[in-house]
Specification:
Distance between the termini: 72 Å
Radius of gyration: 23 Å
Strand content: under 5%
Largest sheet: none
Number of strands: 0
Helix content: over 70%
Number of helices: 5
Length: 170
């Protein structure tokens, strides 16, 4: 009878540990999925901006600054350097907004496709993906603050994720 009780208790503890682990794994997968979404959108938008040609009338220094910020962000994105990614996101948005506000007609006239509208749409999607990523990171961090989940995360080798500070608009 005592052996049966011990077996049932161990089975119950095992099921409870599996349930807790599954809960933790779901949060981790949400963070990873939201990062992949953000990563994809950044790559798409940066690809669009990289294709903006040097047009007569566009200031070369502004376009060079924009392309340099894109390169720095791409490097930071590949390395997972979130603070540098956020800083360069701000530089990209400021540079692009400056170009568009002064040269919209020129960009639209010489462009093969509606770059301005596409970039604006991707920027909105990036804002949403950034918010989703930060929400998922906050939820995973809140879960890991509980001792049982912290222990399970350590045993499972889950890494800690950091939020990305959204770019501030000036």
């Amino acid at each position: 009878m005592a052996v049966l009780f011990i077996i049932l208790a161990l089975a119950g503890l095992t099921l409870m540990a599996l349930r807790l682990y599954t809960h933790l794994a779901v949060h981790q997968r949400r963070v990873v999925a939201s990062w992949h979404r953000l990563d994809t959108l950044l790559a798409q938008r940066n690809g669009e901006l990289d294709q903006v040609p040097r047009l007569p009338g566009l200031p070369a220094s502004s376009l060079d600054d924009l392309h340099q910020a894109i390169q720095h962000q791409e490097t930071a994105r590949r390395k997972g350097d979130l603070p540098t990614l956020a800083v360069n996101e701000q530089r990209i948005r400021d540079g692009w907004d400056g170009l568009v506000s002064q040269h919209t007609d020129l960009i639209q006239k010489w462009s093969q496709k509606p770059v301005v509208g596409r970039v604006q749409g991707l920027d909105l999607a990036i804002n949403d993906a950034l918010a989703a990523y930060n929400t998922a990171v906050d939820a995973a961090a809140a879960l890991r603050r509980r001792p049982v989940f912290a222990l399970l995360a350590g045993i499972a080798g889950y890494s800690r994720f950091r939020p990305i500070e959204p770019p501030t608009r000036r």
